[in-house]
Design goal:
The protein is α/β, with parallel strands linked by helices and 251 residues long. It has one domain: NAD(P)-binding Rossmann-like Domain (Rossmann fold), CATH 3.40.50.720. 46% of the residues lie in helices and 15% in strands. A seven-stranded parallel β-sheet has the order 3-2-1-4-5-6-7, sandwiched between helices. The protein binds NADP nicotinamide-adenine-dinucleotide phosphate. The site of NADP nicotinamide-adenine-dinucleotide phosphate (NAP) has 29 residues, from α1 and α6.
Length: 251
């Protein structure tokens, strides 16, 4: 029997990479999308049936073409809509161009991705779409102004689709807390420069913000994503699920 297919974006590193591994372990044939061909090929070589899509989510015409090719090989059961996080810094210092770029990389690329995989999901009568957002959707994080803004836009987009998509095709958001990835190290270095603290001090302060008192491993976020992509998650729709060690304090 043919394996169900999952398209995982931002699959060369961090949460996306861990999600691709988790989905492969659950029996999916994963298509790995990102810009870095060598990293994708190295990962694909370790995952049975995996394929590579070298594409830049910032280049919309090229993305459309790459996806046309990808869906010509069969429908996707699952889409993990994940990408690199926006630049850090206060919102008041963000340029209009940077805000537009973040909107394009997240909302516009998401729209292209959903439109590409949807006909196959509709024909098959089922599908799972999972967006990787952030706990900043619920509790904006200082000095992540663009990210805080774009998560709200993504949540509105996603909730609207949760109402529009046909039965059997679900869309949900995962909100990771502080997770040990290249992205987090970049943000920690930025915060260290701004505050004069060491990277280690910044990371340990972030870890202490959650009652679990530690940073997440990418696999802990990936397991939640893989669950929401599974047939078992069939009645979960339009939700934003935090995997944050308790960082969000609100009920
Ligand atoms: N880590 C955390 O603590 C944390 C917490 C909350 C939310 N998040 C969010 O979760 C998402 C993933 O974060 P992460 O920590 O896993 O990041 P990461 O380690 O930096 O990985 C980002 C992935 O996205 C890909 N990517 C970046 N820009 C791209 C583009 N223009 N086109 C295609 N692929 C692109 C990168 O691959 P290439 O460079 O090869 O393209 C890489 O595979 C981000 O939205 C981040 O803000 C992370």
């Amino acid at each position: 029997m043919q394996k169900p297919r999952a398209l995982v974006c931002g699959a060369s590193e961090g949460i996306g990479r861990a999600s691709a591994i988790a989905l492969s372990q659950k029996g999916f044939a994963v298509s790995l999308l990102a810009r870095s061909k060598p990293r994708l090929e190295e990962l694909a070589a370790t995952l049975p049936g995996a394929t590579v899509i070298v594409a830049d989510l910032d280049d919309r015409p090229a993305l459309v073409k790459a996806l046309e090719n990808a869906v010509s090989h069969g429908p996707y059961y699952a889409l993990v809509n994940n990408t690199g996080g926006p630049h850090g810094g206060p919102l008041l210092e963000a340029s209009e161009e940077a805000l537009l770029a973040a909107f394009s990389r997240n909302v516009l690329a998401g729209q292209i991705l959903v439109r590409a995989v949807l006909p196959g999901m509709i024909a098959a009568g089922h599908g799972r779409i999972v967006n990787v957002l952030s706990t900043s959707l619920r509790e904006p994080i200082a000095n992540l102004g663009i990210g805080n803004t774009i998560r709200g836009a993504m949540a509105g987009w996603s909730k609207t689709l949760a109402n529009e998509l046909p039965p059997g095709i679900t869309i949900n958001n995962v909100l990771p807390g502080y997770t040990k990835t290249a992205r987090l190290m970049e943000l920690a270095d930025l915060a260290a420069t701004r505050t004069g603290k060491s990277r280690e001090t910044v990371l340990s302060e972030w870890a202490k913000m959650a009652p679990e008192q530690r940073l997440a491993e990418p696999e802990e976020i990936a397991n939640v994503i893989a669950f929401l992509c599974s047939p078992e998650a069939s009645f979960i729709r339009g939700q934003s699920l935090a995997a944050d060690g308790g960082r969000i304090r609100a009920i």
